[in-house]
Structures are given as C-alpha cells and as structure tokens.
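From the thread on structure requests for the teaching lab: each student submitted one protein with a one-line request. Submission from student K.M.:

"Model Precorrin-4 C(11)-methyltransferase from Amycolatopsis panacis, tokens only."
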Amino acid sequence: MTVYFIGAGPGAADLITVRGRDLLARCMVCLYPGSMTPTDLLAYCVPEAECVDTANLSLDEIAAKLVSAHRAGHDVARLCSGDPSLYSAVAEQARRLEAEGVPYEMVPGVPAFAASAAVLGRELTVPGIGQSLVITRAQARSTAMPDDETLANFARSGATLALHLAINHIERVTEELAEYYGENCPAAVVALATQPGETVVRGTLADIAGQARAAGMTRAATIFVGQVLAAAGFPDSFLYSSTRDRATQPDSL
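Reply posted by the TA:
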C-alpha cells in the first residue's frame, strides 16, 4: 500500500486538487494537521475512514501511524497544508518511511504564497519590474536557517520576497529589509488566505508592521515585499508581443 503526501491547499476545501480529493475519497486512513487544515476537507473522506489529527503528535508518532496503516493493508492520505514541497516536514517523514520500506507519493497542492498573491490580485513576476521570487521565512525559535540564507543576502538581490512564518516578528523583519529595499518599498500581508477571517493589509515597509498589528494578524500569514506589488507602466511581456515571430519562436522560449 502507499502513503500519499497530499497538498491540502491554503485552506478553502475546494482548492485541493482533483487528484488530492480523489485520493482522500479512497484512502481508509487520513492523517491531517488539525491546527492548520480546515476540517471541511475531511468531508471528502469516506465515512468509515480513520481520521487522525496530528497536531499533538511527534514526528516519530506520526511516522509510526503511517507505517502501521501501511502494514495493515491501507492506503494512507497524509494531508499537508499548502504544498508538500514547502515547510511541510515531508522530508523527515519520507526518510522514516524509506527506512521501513514503505512506498510514498507526493501530490502537489496550492501553496499559501500563491493563494495570497491571488487574494492581492497581483502577479509576482512583472516584466521590467521583477522576475524572481524568493520564498523564505524568519528565524526565531524554529529550526536554524543555513548560514548564507539570511534576509540581508536575499534583500541585496532586490528580488520579490514572500515570507512565511514571520508574522510574529514583522517589526524586526521589515526594519531589516528597509535597509536594502528602502522604507517606501511596497509591502503587503495576507493572513488566512481563502479561509474564514481572511485579512489583507497593504502599505510600505515603513508602515506595514503597524497595520498588521492593528489588524490582529498573528498566524497563517504571508508577508510580501517588492516593487511588483505596486507595478505600473511596465512593458508588455515579449511572449505576447506582436513583433515576435511565432513561427520560429514558440511560446516555451
């Protein structure tokens, strides 16, 4: 049998992929992070499925349940908030499954930064303004960041930033970033994207922290920094230019 690491999306139950929904509907065991995943998603499970909230389980306890379900002959849905490729602890769980000879697959989902950009109504790569996105987080009591992965190093590039797990340190983060982007650089925060209580604030690095605090943002928030958030007067993409020879320059180039 197989363990499926399924991206549950940013929150709204209808933003899980069709593949993820269909797998939920046939797996007899489902492990989900109750503190992050709306229980509306569990409505896709069959009534007789065993659904386990992992919010209070250690990594070893979670892995043990995955292994035992596999050995009992069950496919297992392991829901991950957003997309499994980002901040999901899938790597640690997969390592344990490999050691036990348990097969697994990863099913992508809509990541929080993408859902938040949709809420903002903004493309994060704009011609002539910004063509790179750095997805990172703040360092606090969480796992240490690699030495070279500092906000300062990322900020020196001028790339658009999407910061996860940083809302409770937004004053420190914005103060540090303002040294490189300038206090007038556009910034925005989206909390609980696509979920009840969704909240959005927009401003600059000079005032966004105060706005976020006033709005009561404390969890499930993505902080964006970059000129693309207020881009105007930019050139059209060459991809759709009337001057491009489509016969010799296909869309993939």
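TA comment: The chain has a mean pLDDT of 92. The beta strands are 3-7, 29-32, 50-53, 76-80, 104-107, 133-137, 160-164, 186-191, 199-204, 221-225.
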